[in-house]
Amino acid sequence: MVHKTFKVAEVEISYRPNYKVSERPQISKSNDAYQILIQQWSIGKIELLEEFKILLLNRRNRVLGIVDISQGGLSGTVADPKIIFAAALKSCASGIILAHNHPSGELDPSCEDIAITNKLKAGALLLDLKILDHLIVTRGNFYSFADEGLM
């Protein structure tokens, strides 16, 4: 009997922060999240291309990191749940704050924004993660789903 040999890729999971927990910013309100996110946004693109990012948080709402999920066009981008949850699980996050910009400058959420938020909230429950907020950001302002009672 001949045994067939298979080649498979090795998967390694790691997360290597290069700073102390006490040095991580802590989120206590939506404006805290906005201030951190807007520093990481390319202001030159914020009114040109729609981007989706996530803030990863530990149990005490300290920021573990920011992940660029996708970059689209003028009117949309993809928020792939597999990529979002892979990043959250890899960093051992307990909470996630979703964020995307509207190049138009309009802050009101679209039906699609509400639908993806609800879809991600449902998926997060299965993984024992919390979607804490979803921010729509513009150059000078933001809309918080949590502040508006949509979370």
Question: Care to describe what's here?
Answer:
Strands 2-1-3-4-5 form a 5-stranded mixed β-sheet, sandwiched between helices. The chain has a single domain, classed as Cytidine Deaminase, domain 2 (3-Layer(aba) Sandwich). The chain is built from 3 helices and 5 strands; from the N terminus they run H-E-E-H-E-H-E-E. It starts with 29 loop residues before the first helix and ends in a 7-residue tail after the last strand. It has 151 residues and is an alpha+beta fold.
Please tag this protein with its features.
Cytidine Deaminase, domain 2; zinc; hydrolase; alpha+beta; globular; 5 strands; five-stranded mixed sheet; metal-binding; 151 residues; MPN
Secondary structure layout plus pairing:
Elements lengths: L29 H11 L10 E7 L5 E9 L9 H10 L4 E7 L9 H16 L3 E8 L4 E3 L7
Parallel strand pairs: 3-4
Antiparallel strand pairs: 1-2, 1-3, 4-5
Pfam families: RadC (PF04002)
Keywords: Hydrolase, Metal-binding, Metalloprotease, Protease, Zinc
InterPro entries: MPN (IPR037518), RadC_JAB (IPR025657), UPF0758 (IPR001405), UPF0758_CS (IPR020891)
Mean pLDDT: 91
DSSP strand content: 15-25%
Topology, number of strands:
5
Quick one: biggest sheet? 5 strands, mixed
Determine the structural class based on helices, strands and strand pairing. alpha+beta
